[in-house]
Amino acid sequence: MSQQAPHKIPFNRPTIVGKELYYISQTILNGHSAGDGAFTKKCNRLLEERLGARKVLLTTSCTHALEMAALLLDIQPGDEVIVPSFTFVSTINAFVLRGARPVFVDIHPDTLNMDETQLEDLITQRTRAILPVHYAGVGCEMDAICEIAVKRNIPIVEDNAHGLFGKYKGRYLGTFGTLATQSFHETKNVTCGEGGALIINDPEYVERAEIIREKGTNRSRFFRGQVDKYTWVDVGSSYLPSDILAAFLYAQLEAVDDIQTKRRNIWEYYNQELSGWAEENSVSLPAVPAHCEQAYHMFYVLLPSLDSRQALIAHLKERGILSVFHYLPLHLSEMGQHFGGQSGDCPVTEDVSDRLLRLPFYNDLDEADQVRVVEAIREFSPMKQFVVASSLSDGRN
Ligand SMILES: *Cc1c(COP(=O)(O)O)cnc(C)c1O
After folding, report:
1. Dihedrals φ, ψ of 156, to 5°?
2. Which of 134, 178, 248, 271 is the most buried (most CB within 10 A)?
3. Which domain, by its residues, includes 190?
4. How far is the CA of 226 from the centre of ligand 1 (A)?
5. 397: confidence class by pLDDT, cuts 50, 70, 90
6. Does the predicted model carry a pTM greater than 0.90?
7. What CATH number is associated with residue 165?
8. pLDDT confidence of 394, banded at 50, 70, 90?
9. For residues 36, 42, 43 and 48, what is the CA-based torsion angle, rounded to 10 degrees?
10. Taking residues 344-356, what's their average pLDDT?
11. Which residue among 59, 62, 157 has the greatest number of ligand 1 atoms within 8 angstroms of its CB, and so is best to mutate?
12. Does residue 368 lie in a domain region?
């Protein structure tokens, strides 16, 4: 008799957590499904209140919020922006779209966040922005980064796609920079399929942000009764999500405490159950400094080598478990090399990128599946893989 194969455990699975379908039906039945409807306003307000942010504007994606940031900061051809090589392409592409040149900074080997000690050396007369990315929802060293930014008068744009409701020294991530961006893509903690937000902490940028987001018009002022008619006043595009998406998102935001509790439990289970295995096998688990409250965006392990990482991916796949690596160093990508990126520029990024593996992590990953993942990993010894591989290549054995 053949044994039935266990079900597959995906890497990510978006879930319904509350009133998503009800709110979506409300927007459709109300007949107002374009942008900046009732649910968009509710989302903006909830985020403003909860984060203590000056202004939050929902956008169609984090990528678009980053593009708005580059427009707001008037990034011009030849300007330089400092960005970790270990991030998603949008962090920098939004600025490159305006003609900026990326200046790649390496990361710390423990938190995998921007190494702030390298910033001073990378700043030039042309530096127009510093872009910290709070990797895995663990805060960058914002005290030091803000101090340098203030001293050199350079705006910070936080890419907080991973870090919604994470904190650094008691303060919410996304409230340190002049601007910050969020993502509500289906792979993030809180989602509406595709979506994002621009957080504006410096009031100087609020009005222009509304204009850029509304096709370069002063439509927002018109709706507030501040002008008689609305007209074309600046550059801009259409960065408003449909209120149907905002309805989806609002239900998720209302349930955010539940979402975060579930994610914290899964994260802590992995961390606890894998610590012995990690220690025995020279594997590192995520580092969360005591002054950071993380956002529980992902759980990753750092294997001793590329070979052992690939072997673990295959080992888990054989058992129906999907695990995935993460960012390839941006400075070594085709575009990165076009900007002068070379092997050796960011050695920690190059090393970590080869060895990092993300485990299945989503809100309704149930206990039985968590156990399955942990047990499958514990059956795997990267050291053994390494010995086998090296003995083969030595021609011994
Ligand atoms: C997901 C992600 C983005 C892009 O988000 P979208 O909403 O898909 O545009 C940008 N930066 C980081 C760090 C991300 O993880």
Report:
1. -105, 135
2. 134
3. 20-254
4. 34
5. very low
6. yes
7. 3.40.640.10
8. very low
9. 110
10. 98
11. 62
12. yes
